[in-house]
Specification:
By secondary structure, the chain is α+β, with helices and mostly antiparallel strands. It folds into two domains: 15-313, no CATH class; 369-461. The chain is built from 14 helices and seven strands. The strands form two sheets. A five-stranded antiparallel sheet has the order 5-4-3-6-7. Strands 1-2 form a two-stranded antiparallel ribbon. Helix 4 runs antiparallel to helix 5. The longest helix has 25 residues, at 57-81. The radius of gyration is 24 Å and the shape is globular. The protein binds a DNA duplex through helix 1, helix 9, helix 10 and helix 11. It is found in: Nucleus. Residues 242-310 bind DNA. It comes from Eleutherodactylus coqui (Puerto Rican coqui). This is HMG box domain-containing protein.
DNA sequence: CGGCCTTTGAAGGTA
DNA sequence: TACCTTCAAAGGCCG
């Protein structure tokens, strides 16, 4: 993965990113230079575009809105909420970042901006992550049904937010319609730091704060009304959930999901995510770098908005099934346990995917006899051997789809049966229809299935 | 109704 | 330092 460490800035990614990209060459130096200079170029070019005579109307509106927000915030600042500066944004180009993010949808004739030059921009039908306004995929107003739309921010986090730099408001997305269209019914939001006493003039909450389910305030927003906050206050106010900022892959998924759905006529997220995972690996470093940069900005912004927040805060809010760690197969003391141990750090290209992600090794913990390595878009194995298998035939049942597989590496073309869990039967359907030509097969990692479990790898759609 | 599935990355905890 | 765990999004599925 790209290391977008730009001169003095904090890490853009975890060590995982470094690991993944090590196998792609030694262009790190070049990569490192991407963020600062290229971002600056991007920004200036976008600004120039916006100032050009041919600037689309929407872009001008964006600027107008940003100006309004700047003025609004200045007013708030004068009201005594100004505490500290955020030097990290000063002169870093970050202040213009929203421009970077927001310009895309508004650029003329749907062309993609530099930022997403090679990444198709889709029009998701659903909502936008609280901070994912940074992502330039939507030229629609926010969906009023977005689960991210917070309803009761006013009484919650927003009121406790530290004062903000004038840069911040510009980070937020501008509806295509401009200021005049900003309304709660659109799910538009207000920077928490602009709230002052907790309620912004627009009364629109910040989407990073997600109310708990059953919040009637949401319905208010859905109906374009302001929420009834006062009855709420009488009760014990539930703490809103501040979501984690999206990482690069999540941003990528949000942007590409609709496209994959359209292409593959799939709806099941599990299957779609598998495809997206493949495509993610197939992305060039430059393409991935865009998303890492977006994610970095999101994290920065998130830290600014919620300084005391920790991802740990949300632990336990999702009920997780008891993990299969009880059945940890690491009870094989003699053999190499992990790709890491077997290949070492300097042969990370030979690591399986989970090892690269510092997760449980699927290759040597579970034995080496299984077929199945994900396959990149060019058909080569991403995770190194073993070879992918070709799906010859799939027969769906209620619970599983049984597929006959053959491995190219097996010259005898002996067939073996794998079983697709019901959750990915849709994949097998694609196989049978010829949309998918290759799949990989992993042996069952739990005792509950004696059959092999197919983890389909999408080669062509 | 709520957890599961499935993906990658980030972050925090543990050994 | 290495490893592990949880959560972030999404929506169909299932108990």
């Amino acid at each position: 993965m790209p290391q977008l460490r730009g001169g003095g800035e904090e890490d853009l990614g975890a060590s995982d990113e470094l690991i993944s990209f090590k196998d792609e060459g030694e262009e790190k130096v070049q990569e490192n230079s991407f963020t600062e200079r290229d971002l600056a170029d991007l920004k200036s070019s976008l600004v120039n575009e916006s100032e050009a005579p041919a600037m689309p109307e929407a872009v001008r509106r964006v600027q107008d809105v940003q100006r309004v927000y700047q003025e609004k915030l200045a007013d708030h600042m004068e009201d005594g909420i100004k505490h500290h500066e955020e030097p990290m944004y000063k002169g870093s180009g970050y202040s213009s970042y929203p421009f970077l993010m927001l310009s895309d949808p508004y650029l003329s004739n749907g062309s993609m901006s530099t930022l997403s030059s090679k990444v198709p921009v889709v029009q998701p039908s659903h909502g936008v992550h609280p901070l994912t306004p940074l992502i330039p995929y939507n030229n629609e107003p926010f969906s009023s049904h977005s689960p991210h739309l917070p309803a009761d921010l006013n009484q919650k986090q927003g009121a406790h937010r530290p004062p903000q730099t004038p840069d911040i408001p510009a980070f937020y997305p501008i509806p295509p319609g401009g200021v005049g269209q900003i309304s709660p019914s659109m799910g538009w939001f207000t920077h928490p730091l602009m709230l002052g006493s907790g309620v912004h003039t627009t009364g629109i909450p910040h989407p990073a704060i997600v109310p708990h389910s059953g919040n009637k305030d949401m319905e208010c927003y859905d109906r374009g009304m302001k929420p009834h906050l006062e009855p709420k206050r009488e009760k014990e106010p539930k703490k809103p959930t501040i979501k984690k900022p999206l990482n690069a892959f999540m941003l990528y998924m949000k942007e590409m999901r609709a496209k994959v759905i359209a292409e593959c006529t799939l709806k099941e997220s599990a299957a779609i995510n598998q495809i997206l995972g493949r495509r993610w690996h197939a992305l060039s470093r430059e393409e991935q770098a865009k998303y890492y940069e977006l994610a970095r900005k999101e994290r920065q912004l998130h830290m600014q908005l919620y300084p005391g927040w920790s991802a740990r805060d949300n632990y336990g809010k999702k009920k997780r099934r008891s993990r299969e760690k009880h059945q940890d197969s690491s009870s094989d003391p003699g053999s190499p346990k992990k790709c890491r141990a077997r290949f070492g750090l300097n042969q990370q290209t030979d690591w399986c995917g989970p090892c690269r992600r510092k997760k449980k090794c699927i290759r040597y913990l579970q034995g080496e006899g299984h077929c199945g390595s994900p396959v990149s878009s060019d058909g080569s194995a991403v995770d190194s051997p073993p070879s992918p298998v070709t799906v010859l035939q799939c027969v769906s049942s209620s619970a599983y789809s049984s597929c006959k597989l053959t491995s190219p590496a097996d010259s005898a073309q002996s067939e073996q049966s794998c079983f697709l869990p019901a959750s990915i039967k849709a994949i097998s359907a694609l196989v049978t229809t010829g949309h998918i030509t290759t799949a990989s097969c992993h042996p069952s990692d739990s005792s509950e299935e004696s059959t092999a479990r197919v983890s389909p790898t999408i080669v062509a759609t």
